[in-house]
Design goal:
Shape: elongated
Helix content: 10-25%
Number of strands: 11
Largest sheet: 8 strands, antiparallel, barrel
Oligomer: single chain
Distance between the termini: 37 Å
Number of domains: 1
CATH class: Mainly Beta
Length: 212
């Protein structure tokens, strides 16, 4: 135990002794689009509303915010939150669904003249929800599971501390079977299969970054 405590103290001392960088922390917010495939959902929508062809890619609005801390001069660790939302309507039925995606990210940073290039990836425990409204009521479903993300971002300087960011990402979600509050699985009646919210896709986001 003493050895462990001594190691922790030494590590903290080394970090505190490092010279301060001009910018140690960045926060960002952005808006973009995610182009993805969710086969199980698409098949269910096709049967229920007639509005989506099974297996095709669809586009969703993506909201994103996060913060990154420079743990060395060229590596950051951070947390981000992304939110995807979409809906499908038809046959007097409306289905809205969303994904909440908090993710722990590790990124390599290449600094240049008035820009930062970031490349990295991460994972998180993610959540999906679906609300289905039919003429005689609304039923809510939800699911959760692991999600993986990789991305590359270019930050271009706008002012002393402000940067414009363009991010390209790829993600895979294993959020599982959608179930109601009572534990009843959402079911595709044509083949009696339980509907899951798993997806894979790529996205493009534009945002602003502030470096402290």
């Amino acid at each position: 135990m003493k050895r462990i405590n001594l190691g922790v103290v030494m590590a903290v001392a080394v970090l505190c002794a490092q010279p301060a960088r001009a910018q140690d922390l960045s926060v960002t917010a952005g808006l973009g689009l995610e182009y993805y495939s969710a086969p199980s959902l698409s098949q269910y929508f096709a049967v229920t509303t007639g509005g989506t062809t099974p297996g095709t890619f669809v586009t969703s609005v993506q909201l994103e915010a996060g913060a990154d801390w420079f743990i060395t001069d060229n590596w950051t660790i951070g947390i981000e939150y992304a939110y995807l939302t979409n809906q499908s309507t038809g046959n007097s039925i409306q289905i809205s669904y969303s994904y909440s995606l908090p993710t722990l990210m590790l990124r390599k940073v290449i600094a240049g003249d008035n820009y930062y290039l970031r490349v990295g990836g991460g994972l998180g425990y993610h959540f999906s929800s679906l609300s289905q409204t039919i003429p005689y009521g609304t039923t809510d479903y939800s699911s959760s599971g692991l999600g993986l993300k990789v991305d590359a971002a270019l930050d271009t300087k706008l002012g002393e501390n402000f940067y414009a960011r363009v991010t390209v990402d790829g993600r895979t979600e294993y959020t599982g079977i959608l179930k109601s509050g009572e534990g009843t699985a959402l079911t595709n009646t044509t083949n009696s299969s339980e509907v899951n919210s798993n997806l894979s896709g790529v996205g493009l986001t534009f945002g602003l970054v502030y470096y402290f």
